[in-house]
Amino acid sequence: MTHPSDYDPEAVRFFDLAHEGAQIRSVAQIVDKLAPLAGNRPRSVIIYSPDHLARKSAELAVALAGPLNTPCVIVDKLPSYTGPLDVVVALTDRGDAPELARGLITAAGRGAEIICAPPARGPLLDDLPPTAFTVPALPTVAGFSPARVIATVTAVLDVLAGPDVPVAERISELAASIDEDIVRLSPERDATINPARGVRAFVDKHQVIHTAPPAGDPEHETGARAAELIAHLWSARGMASGYVDPADLPEVLNHNVTANTKDIFHDPYLDGPEEVIPLRILVWAARETDLTEAMAISADQATRRPFGRIDAALRLVIRALAATIYDAPTGDGA
After folding, report:
1. Do 49 and 109 lie in a common domain?
2. Molecular function (GO) terms listed (predicted)?
């Protein structure tokens, strides 16, 4: 019998992340059921979620999907105009979401098409409209999955683009790409081959700003969308951080220099110790950076799959999530 003390805490925390590829494959399972929607031109796609992280993940998927054929809105309350010309994509981890359930029943009653990615259990499952297309949930995973949200939104937008798009195949390849990175990010891999451990060590005992390559760089949009989502995900996991647009970085760095300038009038006996937490910057989707106290983190282009920017951004997000799982390094850190 395994004693509780024999469990590796990092491996336990890695469990949900290890299933991100499987989360994407669960989305692929419903693609064939969405065939009646293929090529439709709805008045709008309404991405409806009461969950902050789900909405932020959906923003990434929509922004990197490329030119859209249909207007798309991301909301936490169902618009009053919702009707038979609309497609509603509902996303939540809440097993009990009565307001969302009422909204979906209303939307279905008005003739809207409903696609829902609910949790594996809870009253919501029984409250969904019978006409809703439901994304299967993994029964053993409890935490929020950005991959599931991004794959669901991407699949719906691809289906609506037309019957000639091999959506199920593309979603399956996206899952394979994520699985490749998850192997590299395993707790069994040390810092020499696990990039997430390197990120965790770099930011230890520092304030953290997430940013992207500057405007004009081909990776700017990918990096910016990933960095913004990562900032929210880190903060939700207790690693407080923020996103700064590359154009605003000079002002931020100037303020940081001022804050770190030693006060010649400071008296440690009267004023107490000066405690200014140093700043480090993570530049997502960048191969290199000229910024000081910064790390460039690239989504290796050699393994990119058909989804291109979404694939790259999601792999960056997965790497960032893995960094929150690992313990801070012992000693003085990076």
Report:
1. yes
2. carbohydrate derivative binding
